[in-house]
Amino acid sequence: MTWYFSTKILVPAVCFMLVLYAAPAQNPGTFYLKPSLTGKLLFDNNSLSSHFPDVFDLATEHFTQQTPLFNFQRRKLPLAGISVGYTLRKNENSVELGLMQDVTETEYSITVNNPLPGTKAERPVHYRESEGFYNFSFLYKHRLLRFKLGSADSGKYLKVFISLGASYCYEKGPAFVQFNSPDLRDRLYTQDGTIIEVSSAKYVSASIQRNIAIKYNLISLKYNLGLDFYLGTKEKEWFTTQIGLIYNQGLVHTTTRVDVKVIKNQQTKNYIEYIRRNGNGIYFTVSKRFYLRKHPRKNT
């Protein structure tokens, strides 16, 4: 998985920072930077191609194929992000511009109905394809609730904000690529001597037409909705946790071609399926704001 920076993303972010920093001195707002770490629960309504003549339902007397609706990201490290924001002193609402690593993953499994004892086929065999991209977001955060924690003198609080906005997902690709040949992933064996060969190929931001995959620069605009929970005291804001939903059922991020070849009595049957994902997910984030001007404290 390769991560990169693009001037199409960085230039708007730098301009936004300069505008905020150049705000008039009498403006009572507060300017901050916010690094974040995120875990993602991916979900999609799997779009399975059924209009190609070589596509079949992958369920036979020998095996079944399944694709889960939800799966948590398998990337070992959390998704890193950085945001710049501007908070109004009067009501503590804020606007925020962020750049975050993001990922889309396709997970599927093959279950052999009559597996050969002592082999890998005795349990469902899981496969996964993943691809990284960048998530560029613009958000407005509005305070809903404020709770005092502990004694009245402690000054501890919990603030709840609703976050509304949009995410622009960007990934660069060449204008045209040929359809990749699937790579062999496994050979599974049944008790009656049948061999099941599982192969797959991944296409990023691709529109598949017969045997050709057209790859383009991905520009996908998604809804971004969440709840932010701020913890702190009168003297110091500790950290923020967030749960958010980023969703759009439009443009596809990845398409995985799954090929299953059943070989029995020197006869071969081929099964092909296309699994499409568009990178939707529920995001769980931990972050902290670092103020570049003195943060105005409120007694309420």
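[next item in queue]
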Amino acid sequence: MRVVFVTGATGVEKRAALTTTQHYAEAKGLVEPGDLRVYHVEEVIKERGRNLRAFADITAPDVQQSAWASAVDAIGERVAALTPRPRCVVVVMHYFYYYRTRIFSPVTWEPLRRLARLADSVAFVSLIDDCYAMWARIATRTFGPRPTDLRLKECFTWRSIETTASDQCAGELMAGEANPPPTASYVVAVNQPPITLVTNDN
């Protein structure tokens, strides 16, 4: 089983890109239905009773990290209970958030590490898009936490640190493990063809 952590700033249409990729892979026979499972960390946070706006408003880092870690652990429990194991599990998340003029990350590595231990291989995929397109989408959002007065240059910064942090996590997450699964890191534009994210060997 491969575990793929997908990151990307707000304004990158991660859900649409992954839905298109899943439909493409199944239609082409690259995966069987059920062999590709997709989990969204923010959806699990909401399932566990936290409004995303309230989550973003939390100013105590330990409380925010605890809520985020609990959601990732819940995904890990669901994956561990699957029989048989799927071929690929995709976990979609924000590594960083920008909200009310501050950039912050609720990410802690230990829950990611616990999930990665279930895998034969791990990949981190940073989805990116044109910053002007991201900026425009964020400005017109009518759901969830919306950044306040996000400037275009801050959108560039957000995209850059999201990609850098994801790559760093890929390189260091399993350091010190006795038998770590092979881990790869990719940066992929959301407007690339679905085949970019799906190959016969992953």
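[queue empty]
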